[in-house]
Amino acid sequence: MARADDEYCLLVNATGGTSLWALPAFWTDGADEAEWPRHVPRFARLVAHRHRAGLVRPVRAPGRAYLPDAHRVAAADVPDVLAGPDTWAWRASGGQVICGGLAVAMADLTGPPPRQPSA
Protein backbone atom coordinates (compact mmCIF):
# COMPACT_ATOMS: atom_id res chain seq x y z
CA MET A 1 0.00 0.00 0.00
CA ALA A 2 1.34 3.37 -0.97
CA ARG A 3 -0.89 5.34 1.39
CA ALA A 4 -1.39 4.82 5.11
CA ASP A 5 -5.15 5.14 5.03
CA ASP A 6 -7.53 4.36 2.17
CA GLU A 7 -10.36 6.43 3.63
CA TYR A 8 -8.13 9.48 3.86
CA CYS A 9 -7.14 8.86 0.23
CA LEU A 10 -10.82 8.84 -0.73
CA LEU A 11 -11.73 11.99 1.18
CA VAL A 12 -8.74 14.00 -0.05
CA ASN A 13 -9.46 13.05 -3.65
CA ALA A 14 -13.23 13.48 -3.32
CA THR A 15 -12.79 16.95 -1.89
CA GLY A 16 -10.84 17.80 -5.02
CA GLY A 17 -13.56 16.34 -7.23
CA THR A 18 -11.61 13.38 -8.56
CA SER A 19 -12.69 10.88 -11.20
CA LEU A 20 -13.17 7.49 -9.59
CA TRP A 21 -10.45 5.90 -11.74
CA ALA A 22 -7.94 8.17 -9.98
CA LEU A 23 -8.48 6.58 -6.56
CA PRO A 24 -6.66 3.29 -7.30
CA ALA A 25 -4.10 5.23 -9.34
CA PHE A 26 -3.34 7.52 -6.40
CA TRP A 27 -3.37 4.62 -3.93
CA THR A 28 -0.69 2.79 -5.92
CA ASP A 29 1.34 5.94 -6.61
CA GLY A 30 0.46 5.60 -10.30
CA ALA A 31 1.79 2.06 -10.59
CA ASP A 32 1.05 0.03 -13.69
CA GLU A 33 -2.56 0.57 -14.73
CA ALA A 34 -3.04 -3.21 -14.78
CA GLU A 35 -2.72 -3.16 -10.96
CA TRP A 36 -5.54 -0.65 -10.43
CA PRO A 37 -8.50 -3.07 -10.76
CA ARG A 38 -7.22 -5.00 -7.75
CA HIS A 39 -7.99 -1.95 -5.58
CA VAL A 40 -11.41 -1.11 -7.04
CA PRO A 41 -13.46 -3.23 -4.57
CA ARG A 42 -11.85 -1.42 -1.62
CA PHE A 43 -12.72 1.99 -3.02
CA ALA A 44 -16.17 0.95 -4.25
CA ARG A 45 -17.04 -0.08 -0.68
CA LEU A 46 -15.64 3.15 0.73
CA VAL A 47 -17.43 5.37 -1.78
CA ALA A 48 -20.72 3.55 -1.13
CA HIS A 49 -20.29 3.84 2.64
CA ARG A 50 -19.29 7.50 2.53
CA HIS A 51 -22.11 8.26 0.10
CA ARG A 52 -24.64 6.73 2.51
CA ALA A 53 -23.12 8.87 5.28
CA GLY A 54 -23.51 12.00 3.13
CA LEU A 55 -19.77 12.68 2.87
CA VAL A 56 -19.27 12.16 -0.86
CA ARG A 57 -21.45 12.70 -3.89
CA PRO A 58 -20.88 10.71 -7.10
CA VAL A 59 -21.84 12.70 -10.19
CA ARG A 60 -21.72 12.11 -13.93
CA ALA A 61 -19.78 14.97 -15.40
CA PRO A 62 -19.56 15.90 -19.07
CA GLY A 63 -15.89 16.78 -18.65
CA ARG A 64 -13.07 15.77 -16.39
CA ALA A 65 -13.88 18.21 -13.60
CA TYR A 66 -16.35 18.07 -10.75
CA LEU A 67 -19.08 20.64 -11.14
CA PRO A 68 -21.61 21.08 -8.33
CA ASP A 69 -24.45 21.20 -10.87
CA ALA A 70 -23.34 18.01 -12.67
CA HIS A 71 -25.84 15.16 -12.90
CA ARG A 72 -25.95 13.58 -9.47
CA VAL A 73 -26.02 9.78 -9.43
CA ALA A 74 -29.28 8.76 -7.73
CA ALA A 75 -28.78 7.01 -4.40
CA ALA A 76 -30.53 3.89 -5.70
CA ASP A 77 -28.12 3.77 -8.67
CA VAL A 78 -24.87 4.21 -6.74
CA PRO A 79 -24.28 0.46 -6.11
CA ASP A 80 -24.74 -0.39 -9.81
CA VAL A 81 -22.57 2.52 -10.92
CA LEU A 82 -19.79 1.53 -8.51
CA ALA A 83 -20.00 -2.10 -9.68
CA GLY A 84 -19.52 -1.13 -13.33
CA PRO A 85 -15.98 -1.65 -14.63
CA ASP A 86 -16.31 1.37 -16.94
CA THR A 87 -16.77 3.56 -13.86
CA TRP A 88 -13.19 2.81 -12.83
CA ALA A 89 -11.58 2.96 -16.28
CA TRP A 90 -9.35 5.87 -17.26
CA ARG A 91 -10.65 8.05 -20.08
CA ALA A 92 -8.97 10.98 -21.77
CA SER A 93 -12.31 12.66 -22.40
CA GLY A 94 -15.47 13.36 -20.42
CA GLY A 95 -18.42 11.26 -19.41
CA GLN A 96 -16.75 10.07 -16.23
CA VAL A 97 -18.19 9.40 -12.82
CA ILE A 98 -16.58 11.85 -10.47
CA CYS A 99 -16.70 11.75 -6.71
CA GLY A 100 -17.11 15.16 -5.13
CA GLY A 101 -16.73 15.86 -1.45
CA LEU A 102 -19.41 17.70 0.43
CA ALA A 103 -18.65 20.47 2.90
CA VAL A 104 -19.12 18.14 5.86
CA ALA A 105 -16.17 16.08 4.60
CA MET A 106 -13.87 19.02 5.25
CA ALA A 107 -14.11 18.32 8.99
CA ASP A 108 -12.51 14.94 8.34
CA LEU A 109 -9.57 16.60 6.59
CA THR A 110 -8.46 19.03 9.27
CA GLY A 111 -5.57 16.88 10.35
CA PRO A 112 -3.21 14.20 9.10
CA PRO A 113 -4.53 10.74 8.31
CA PRO A 114 -5.18 8.59 11.37
CA ARG A 115 -2.17 6.60 12.51
CA GLN A 116 -2.23 2.85 12.27
CA PRO A 117 -2.16 1.11 15.68
CA SER A 118 1.29 0.01 16.78
CA ALA A 119 1.94 -3.70 16.91
Structure keywords:
single chain; 119 residues; alpha+beta; four-stranded antiparallel β-sheet
List the helices and strands and how they pair.
Elements: H1 6-15, E1 18-19, H2 22-27, H3 40-52, E2 56-61, E3 71-72, H4 78-83, E4 96-101
Antiparallel strand pairs: 1-4, 2-3, 2-4
Give a short summary of the structure.
This protein is an alpha+beta fold and 119 residues long. Helices cover 29% and strands 13% of the residues.
Form type? globular
Strands of the biggest beta sheet: in what spatial order? 1-4-2-3
Distance between the termini: 17 Å
Mean pLDDT, to the nearest integer, reads: 76
Provide the low-confidence segments as ranges: 103-111
Given the helix and strand composition, which structural class is it?
alpha+beta
Overall domain count: 1
Helix content, binned percent: 25-40%
Radius of gyration: 14 Å
The biggest beta sheet is recorded as: 4 strands, antiparallel
- Helix segment count? 4
Number of strands: 4
Indicate the proportion of strand residues: 5-15%
Tell me the series of helices and strands, N- to C-terminal.
HEHHEEHE
Task: Tell me what you see in this structure.
This protein is an alpha+beta fold and about 120 residues long. It has one domain (about 5-110). About 30% of the residues lie in helices and about 15% in strands. It has four helices and four strands. Strands 1-4-2-3 form a four-stranded antiparallel β-sheet. The longest helix has 13 residues, at about 40-50. The protein starts with 5 loop residues before the first helix and ends in an 18-residue tail after the last strand.
